C-alpha cells in the first residue's frame, strides 16, 4: 500500500528515527528523517511534508520551538508531538498552537497511525 503522503520525523534519537521510519514505510508512507529542528528547517523545505512528527526534548531547538518557527513562516503542516517527558505546560502550549496530538513515548502503533491518518485526511 502506497499513500504518496510524506511524513517528516524530527528526533535527535537515531534509533527512534529509524524505527518510526521503518514502521511508517511499512504502512505505505514516504518518510524523511531529520536529527534536529534546525536540520528540518534547513533541509525540510526541499520536499514538503504532509505531517511532521517531532520529539519535544531535543538539543539546539525543542519541538515546541520548531512549531513556533513554522507558524511564523505561515506553515499549516499538521504536527504530532512525542515525548518521554510529558508535562501539562508543554502539552497545553503545543496543543493551543495547533498540534494534532501530544503522545507519550513509547507510543502505541495504532494510536500513532490513527493520529497520522487524521492529520493527513
Indicate the topology.
Blueprint (H helix, E strand, L loop, with lengths): L5 E5 L3 H13 L3 E5 L2 H7 L7 E5 L7 H10 L6 E5 L4 H9 L4 E4 L4 H12 L1
Parallel strand pairs: 1-2, 1-3, 3-4, 4-5
Would you give an account of this structure?
With 121 residues, the protein is of the alpha/beta class. The chain has a single domain (6-120), classed as 3-Layer(aba) Sandwich (Rossmann fold). Helix content is 42%, strand content 20%. The chain is built from five helices and five strands; from the N terminus they run βαβαβαβαβα. Strands 2-1-3-4-5 form a five-stranded parallel sheet, with helices on both faces. The longest helix has 13 residues, at 14-26. The model has no long low-confidence stretch (mean pLDDT 95). This is Response regulator. Keywords: Phosphoprotein. The modification 4-aspartylphosphate is found at residue 55.
Q: What oligomeric state is this? A: single chain
Secondary structure: helix percent: 40-55%
- Number of separate helices: 5
Total number of domains? 1
Number of strands: 5
- Please state how the strands of the largest beta sheet are arranged side by side: 2-1-3-4-5
Keywords: Phosphoprotein
Organism: Paradevosia tibetensis
Pfam family, one: Response_reg
Protein name: Response regulator
Amino acid at each position: 500500500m502506497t499513500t504518496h503522503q510524506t511524513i517528516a520525523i524530527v528526533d535527535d534519537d537515531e534509533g527512534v528515527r529509524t524505527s518510526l521510519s521503518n514502521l511508517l514505510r511499512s504502512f505505505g508512507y514516504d518518510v524523511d528523517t531529520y536529527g534536529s529542528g534546525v536540520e528540518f528547517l534547513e533541509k525540510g523545505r526541499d520536499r514538503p511534508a504532509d505531517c511532521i512528527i517531532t520529539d519535544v526534548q531535543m538539543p539546539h531547538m525543542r519541538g515546541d520551538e520548531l512549531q513556533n518557527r513554522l507558524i511564523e513562516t505561515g506553515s499549516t503542516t499538521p504536527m504530532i508531538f512525542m515525548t518521554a517527558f510529558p508535562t501539562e505546560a508543554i502539552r497545553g502550549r503545543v496543543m493551543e498552537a495547533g498540534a494534532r496530538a501530544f503522545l507519550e513515548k513509547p507510543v502505541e502503533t495504532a494510536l500513532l497511525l490513527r493520529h497520522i491518518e487524521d492529520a493527513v485526511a
